[in-house]
Design brief:
alpha/beta, Fumarate Reductase Iron-sulfur Protein, Chain B, domain 2, four-stranded parallel beta sheet, 25 helices, about 55% helix, about 10% strand
Length: about 425
């Protein structure tokens, strides 16, 4: 057993199988299946490494159904990093069984380069906005490609045909007398699907006196890492590291909770290369999530923007449990004039998006989302704010699906409108 696998073996062996994780796992809550809970995952990975378990569907299905939300980790007495163990299990599965060609094409060719990915997203947008995909769904054609793909098509109402990077040139990113130089790390979800969020973020950053440089980065690497393709994740991380080093900004800011979380984990990708690990650690010291950066920088109220209403907040898993960022967004919301803040019950419980989880495991994802919508109803909130593109898309779909009038926005959008 090599050193990397030995480290994982030592970690899974810390699990004392107490079962306390059961009460906190959204998927176990739905299935009641022991294979879906943390101690089940740890037992599986341990047996795999001991050679006592085959790479069959009984291993693969529950392993890839995990949300990686870290609710189990946050409530584990011995502190077992089940999220890392699950990813290690997925990586081992890919190594032994292989991965689908389409997934490898996505992780190794498209996601590292936003320019290569753009034509494919634009093609999807044309199909979506023209009604072609709705027609295919109505005819049942999409179900030929996957049992839930016809249902998944409705998660997004439409897709933009112009992306944030194309719009950024129209923005004034150099305020007068600016002393603070920022590198803005562009998340794929905001660039291609929700470009208005990035625009709002940059307007707010400039308003607080920052000079913003839009980084020419590719995907942060989290999707590949989450599916166990560690090779692709490292390549993307190295490319982004080089790009951000050349900018030499005071702070690297991103409005995507998932991107900021994974950027801060870059040193873990280079444990076998001390030089790269040191460079990644220097980057981590500069990385801040939007609400993290905005602490103490809330500008005054903007004239002509009165607001009176209830606002609540959903904690993305990659912000609350991966980075410990929970007070910061709430402080900002409470500081906006006219906002009546109300806490969302189970605010840090996963909404079920989890990257592409709502695509790959639609039915389970919707059950997790339904619970989140029940909690949202209890708040009576006019606006639900969050800081993750996956959460924004999922929660917006949930509000439409549940017939709620709640508006789902990114925190930066709210700040641009009301301050």
């Amino acid at each position: 057993m090599d050193e990397a696998l030995k480290a994982i073996y030592d970690e899974v062996s810390k699990c004392n199988r107490c079962g306390f994780c059961q009460a906190h796992c959204p998927i176990f809550d739905l299935t009641g299946d022991e294979r879906n809970v943390a101690r089940g995952h740890n037992v599986h990975v341990r047996k795999l490494l001991e050679g006592a378990l085959e790479m069959g569907e009984d291993f693969k299905d529950p392993l890839f159904e995990c949300l990686l939300c870290k609710a189990c980790v946050a409530n584990c007495f011995p502190g077992v990093r089940t999220d890392r163990n699950v990813i290690a299990g997925r990586a081992e599965y890919i190594k032994r069984v292989g991965q689908p060609r389409l997934m490898r094409f996505l992780f190794h060719r498209l996601l590292p380069d936003h320019a290569k990915l753009a034509p494919y997203v634009r093609l999807a947008a044309v199909g979506k906005n023209s009604g072609a995909t709705r027609l295919a769904r109505a005819m049942g054609i999409l179900s030929w490609f996957g049992k839930d793909l016809d249902k998944v098509e409705g998660i997004l109402e439409n897709l933009p045909t112009s992306f944030f990077r194309e719009r950024a040139s129209r923005l004034n990113l150099e305020p007068p007398h600016s002393k603070l130089r920022l590198a803005y790390f562009v998340g794929c979800g905001f660039n291609f699907v929700l470009p208005q969020v990035s625009e709002a973020t940059l307007e707010v950053l400039v308003r607080v006196g920052a000079s913003v440089h839009v980084a020419d980065n590719g995907c942060c690497g989290l999707p590949a890492h989450g599916y166990g393709d560690l090779e692709a994740a490292r390549k993307m991380a190295l490319k982004n590291l080089e790009i951000l080093e050349k900018i030499d900004a005071d702070v690297v800011v991103t409005d995507c909770g998932s991107c900021s979380a994974f950027l801060k984990e870059y040193p873990e990708l280079f444990v076998d290369d001390p030089a790269l690990r040191e460079r990644a650690q220097k980057l981590v010291k500069k990385v801040q999530e939007f609400s993290e950066f905005m602490q103490g920088r809330l500008p005054g109220a903007a004239p002509g923007h009165p607001f009176s209403g209830k606002v609540t907040y959903h904690d993305p898993c990659h912000m609350s449990r991966y980075q410990g960022i929970t007070k910061e967004p709430r402080n900002l919301l409470k500081g906006i004039p006219g906002v009546s803040y109300v806490e969302l019950p189970e605010a840090d419980r996963c909404c079920g998006a989890a990257g592409s989880y709502n695509i790959m495991h639609y039915e389970q994802s919707m059950k997790v989302l339904d619970r989140k919508m029940e909690m949202l109803k209890k708040t009576g909130a006019d606006i639900l704010a969050t800081e993750c593109p996956g959460c924004l898309i999922q929660l917006s779909y949930g509000a439409r699906r549940a017939g709620l009038g709640t508006r789902v926005v990114h925190l930066s959008e709210l700040m641009r409108e009301m301050i």
